[in-house]
Description:
Layout: H1 9-12, E1 16-17, H2 18-23, E2 36-40, E3 43-46, H3 53-57, E4 68-69, H4 71-77, E5 98-102, E6 113-117, E7 125-128, E8 131-134, H5 136-144
Parallel strand pairs: 5-6
Antiparallel strand pairs: 1-3, 2-3, 4-5, 7-8
Helix pairs in contact: 4-5
Amino acid sequence: MTTGKPLPAELAASSFTIGEARLQGLSPWRAKAKDLHVPSRGIRVPAAREQSLLARARPYTLLGTPDTVSFYSAAAIHSFKLPDNLADTRLPLSARLLHMTRSGSAAPRRKGVIGHRSPLAPDDVVILDRVPVTSIPRTLLDLAGPGPG
């Protein structure tokens, strides 16, 4: 694998899907170059690029069934104070697992993702920089765990 020519500015800025790469004219060979990290199928990350959790989560919400960033990932995006053992800052950002919720019949199953399945009402989801994230009240409910039952 080689490095290849520079990425278009839109792709060099943060994580992207293979579909977005194709729309920008990136060849399949360039998408396999060693300067791109592959956190999960269909997603590429410029290797030297530091990015926010929200930017890192964005491509996961664009693949297949619509998924929403949730639980601890949503809490981090909403700047909740989390115990150190839940937000392991020793890991590189691209190696941390994402929590995603799907309203459908099955939880998301993808490398690097902890999947959840739960119905989400429209007011349970906010859009932050074009990324669906559970709202603050919904995130608090998710983190509180199941009620008495």
